Queue: 3 jobs
Job 1
Amino acid sequence: MIYTVTFNPALDYVVKMDSLELGMVNRSKSETIFYGGKGINVSTVLKNIGVDSVALGFVAGFTGKEIEDGVKTMGVKTDFIQLKNGLSRINVKIKAEQETEINGQGPDIKKDELQQMFDKLDKLQSGDCLILAGTIPASLPSDIYEQIMEKLMNRNIDIVVDATKNLLLNVLKFHPFLIKPNNHELGEMFGVVLKSDDEIVEYAKKLQVMGARNVLISMAGDGAILITETGEVHKIGVPKGTVVNSVGAGDSMVAGFTASYLKDHDYMEALKRGTATGSATAFSEGLATADKVEELYKQL
Ligand SMILES: Nc1ncnc2c1ncn2[C@@H]1O[C@H](COP(=O)(O)OP(=O)(O)OP(=O)(O)O)[C@@H](O)[C@H]1O
Ligand SMILES: O=P(O)(O)OC[C@@]1(O)O[C@H](CO)[C@@H](O)[C@@H]1O
């Protein structure tokens, strides 16, 4: 079974407007709400492409209830922990000339509530896959992903980590099966701006030296580069299409790649599937659907 963990789920409030003027009253042309947070997006896309998963995470207040109900209604299996206090966040995504995002901080998670998550993770079985995705609320220790990975070490559980900066760097010593920073995040981790594919490969390999098994660097409209644990380097471009909303494209890529690799154990195929799934989300109002993925996959 694939499990996703979202420490900080969100209602994604996507507003469209022609232009955003700071310091002024802005009026939107449309508003849509999606059930988000990176792990939840991965579980939703897995469901859309016909793969079962269980979404784990913490929800709080009326926003948390809405997220849980909404995700369940879409047919995603959930096993969320209900927090006693606070509100799950509402993340605002503004689509104007540029995409601007305001992501909330999220509710506090108390020690006993965190323990409930560890208890759930302790029940994972050999052969399961765990996807840890997104930021963690400020109330949690910053080494929480490390703590999880340390507890699950040597239990034959493939762990995928989609996080940034130290959250990601600090887990590498536990040999995650896959990490997926984008090219900007990769540069930030080393305090450099990466200008060419060769530089991206050079720095992605440093993450492998630090312990990552497979490193997938997504590059939005420029595609992606995969460096496998067997030392292969694969680059892929993107299919043709019009970008509608790229929120969740990275999560969709993780879903497509992971589902495909677990099924076929073929890196190139997984890279194609991941790319088609990422682009299917970028070219849609919401997250990737199976039909859109199939249509785009044929172009790769
Ligand atoms: N403009 C685009 N055109 C085509 N495909 C895209 C575009 N943006 C994203 N994608 C697809 O989605 C994949 C992941 O995108 P990206 O690199 O933006 O991830 P990310 O930064 O993690 O995204 P996010 O944080 O928005 O989920 C890309 O490798 C590509 O396949
Ligand atoms: O604040 P985090 O946890 O880093 O990211 C949260 C988020 O931006 O990520 C998803 C898109 O990848 C959205 O659904 C959600 O709002």
Note: The first strand starts at residue 2 and ends at 6.
Job 2
Amino acid sequence: MKRLLTYLKRHPLATLFAPLFKMLEASFELFVPLVVAKMIDIGIYQKNAGYLWRMGALLVLLGIIGFGFAITAQYFAAKSAVSTGRDLRNDLFAHINTLSFKEIDTLGTSTLINRMTNDINQVQNGINMFLRLFLRSPFVVFGAMVMAFTVDAKAAIPFVIVIPALAVVVFAILLITMPLYKNVQKQLDDVLLSTRENLLGIRVVRAFNRQESEMESFGKKSSRLFFRQIHVGKISALLNPVTYVIINLGIIAILWSGGNQVYLGRLTQGQVIALINYMSQILVELIKLANLIILLSKAIASLNRVNNIFDMQPSIKEEGAFLASKTPIGSIAGTAAVEFKNVSFSYNETAKEVLSNITFKAMPGQTIGIIGGTGSGKSSLVNLIPRFYDVQNGSVEVDGGNVKTLNPVSIRKHIGMVPQKAQLFKGTLRENMRWGRKNATDEEIYQALEIAQAKEFVDSKDQGLDLMIEQNGSNLSGGQKQRLTIARALVKNPDILILDDSASALDFATDARLRKAIKQQIQNRTVFLVSQRVSTIRNADQILVLDDGTLAGIGTHEELLRENEVYQEICASQLSKEEVPYSVKTAN
Ligand SMILES: Nc1ncnc2c1ncn2[C@@H]1O[C@H](COP(=O)(O)OP(=O)(O)OP(=O)(O)O)[C@@H](O)[C@H]1O
């Protein structure tokens, strides 16, 4: 709540004017029954047409002024709500961008998207309604009661009974329904998450012919939402009949006692009508208030979920010593570009270690091949170099500095990372290529495309660097995307290039040409080549063989082929017998 207040304070005028104008509108509304009473008692009773016209005009005037105030209040309430929503959304997006992968993995992307969209929208709607009604409704309820007493204290006694009775009913129903509405909201979350996951993975769903079972599972979640909504709806539906019964009993009481008073000449007919009108105003406002409370309870639940993300602190902060961006890595003679010293790592403290006791040195200009079975820890290992995660034991050093003491942004400036999943963004090819270096020239981009073996296919498209890339690169093939992501990393001209299985969708010939071009054209750069293919890493200066998170061997292709059983097994499954002359125990 405190956080929300600081956001509302950024728009003080709109936030104050909205309830203020709503109160002014309500004040005008409270005079209407009095004017109607006068019309009955004087205009109709005395058959005074002139008076009726004047009072009629006054009613129209009250209506126009009230309408003006209502529109102004609505404008300010919407302005405050929308501005607060925008600020919250921007700040939450910025905050999510500071979170480390550890937190993002824990929360999950779908949850984060939900917080950014649905939850902030709920908060926005809550603010809008709150500013419009939180002062107006209680003001009208008590104002109408006070006005009723000014009409006639004795005849207004039913108000003293009806208002508390109404309040008790409304709040009892709210008390029962509020937790139920929370459940509805939770289920709605579930449905939204499921929708998002299914639509993002629609190709996989179709490929596995899972439509039926996915529809069934979605149907179940959707039905659960339906039943929860119906259940809470049934209880909420009691609100209207019960409140109408109470109000009508109040009206009967007013009519009965008021009628007697009119008969005795102590009260006029107009005054009785005014009392009935005030009773109706109270009913309408109490129902509005109940709806406001329901909406607020949803908005508060959403606000709490947004706050949970705001309260989450990044485990890796953008602080620490700066790795000089102007001095290339490898300038200090004898210092390794990257060094792992007894590194052990797991994704969370309680989980099994994904990497255990890894020690190796990558000297500047060396190419390091990393090979191992699926899930052996190859991607996890390279993700530690740009400090995407922090290790639990040992240390990862870049250019002689422990990454834990270095500002992660400054480390990443030196690294060109090509992740396993090729990810491009909507925009032109040129915009995508400039992600690592804003001012890269077309010539530099073409040079990178050439090394990445992507120039030919870019040239085959008429638009060249203006080629429009759709969301997620959906208008490109898997291999084309991979080559473009490699080119994007090369445009950055990094000191350390990490290719995490980035050529898996390329044919062998293109893969070979790519490696040759990297070797010839990017010298003095340290390159990490992660692959499951022996052919990709066999010419590396050093090959790390990973087996279930441990370093099973380190050396050149020839050394490992001679001495390392795990490597021999991998080679035996991929290379010809002539290329693997050594005995392999479990070769296939
Ligand atoms: N974000 C994560 N959170 C939790 N566990 C993870 C995460 N990423 C990977 N793992 C686990 O860490 C282990 C190593 O995964 P990693 O991706 O490093 O293997 P890999 O050798 O690169 O596999 P592949 O060749 O299939 O890409 C696996 O058991 C995997 O389940």
Note: The CA atoms of residues 378 and 533 lie 13 Å apart.
Job 3
Amino acid sequence: MKTLEVDLGDRSYPIHIGTDLIDQAQLFSACEKATSIYIVSNTTVAPLYAERLTKTLEKLGKPVRTIVLPDGESYKDWKNLQLIFDDLLKYGADRQTMLVALGGGVIGDMTGFAAASFMRGIRFIQVPTTLLSQVDSSVGGKTGINHPLGKNMIGAFHQPVAVIADLNTLKTLPARELSAGLAEVVKHGAIADAEFLSWIEVNAKALLACDTAAMAHAVLRSCEIKSAVVSADEREGGIRATLNFGHTFGHAIEAGMGYGEWLHGEAVGCGMVMGADLSKRLNFITQDEVNRLTHIIQSMNLPITPPKFGAQRYMELMQVDKKTEGGQIRYVVLEKIGKAQIKSVPDAQVIETLTATGAV
Ligand SMILES: NC(=O)c1ccc[n+]([C@@H]2O[C@H](COP(=O)([O-])OP(=O)(O)OC[C@H]3O[C@@H](n4cnc5c(N)ncnc54)[C@H](O)[C@@H]3O)[C@@H](O)[C@H]2O)c1
Ligand SMILES: O=C(O)C(=O)C[C@@H](O)[C@H](O)[C@H](O)COP(=O)(O)O
Ligand SMILES: [Zn+2]
């Protein structure tokens, strides 16, 4: 097992990465002060892992309950968030209750937001079970739900007290979900570590085969990159926005298609192709580099052609992005492979990208 720390002063926490971690009660030591523990999971993940995790948590001598939500991005909303509060209140949760998010990014984001707001804030642990949640969403404390008009529009920054990433849970993950997770892995290389991007390129086959050693490296390096950025800029005043590479276009695809039609990772993969094209138009990277990144994304079995919503609809969907300031949409672009920056770009150049990539 490898452990790294997200360094945030008195809100610092460990990320544990290894195999069979959900059976190890000592990793959940933050629950020692808890009055009760609620696992929050969904109808797919709970039957696979909730019983094992319950046995582990019961060793800590606390009452353990499981709340099971419907599965899917389309349920990441107010109505289904309320189901968590309903059970917490029904069964007598209090301010010392610990929530444990068992699932992918949807469960992690919703459980985190429930923890941020229940009784004005309780603690929670992330047990991510998708590649995407292990390399990205379980770390950094962005929690929330979607609004029909925009992705993750309602939420809070609320850090977990621990992240426990059990690589063996990835063995039951469908191939399409694995590919979606690889999009965020590629993102970390593209924005912060050119050498890591080359490693991803060389190890694409092992990654797609869910080889444990390859997964361990992808999760560890991604968590190192993300935790360094989050430690430097927890609330996205500056550098944290670079973690949004591919997301201005990607979130527009997710909302425009209807949540759940394209997986988040698929939309981000395609969004990065568009972001790379935009970076080339700003004379930052070359067409060869755009082609290389596009090829890497395609080799992960991710779509590279966006839906044809037309320029006006894309601009409308992107306008609500959380990076927009004073009506100006700001895009994450690649200064070079391994380094990103955030920039306002004239609409005309963005429309050129939309046209060139097939969105118009
Ligand atoms: N908070 C953040 O920083 C952050 C970062 C990236 C993404 N996100 C959010 O995360 C969400 C996407 O997360 P995701 O890709 O994990 O999707 P997800 O949570 O919908 O999980 C994907 C699918 O895999 C299933 N699943 C989960 N673990 C499994 C396992 N071990 N075996 C079999 N099936 C399993 C789930 O039930 C679901 O059907 C989006 O809502 C996105 O906005 C948040
Ligand atoms: O942690 C971050 O910061 C990220 O941007 C990571 C993204 O991969 C993630 O999808 C995040 O939820 C997007 O944030 P948002 O603020 O654009 O909703
Ligand atoms: Zn993302």
Note: The mean pLDDT is 98.
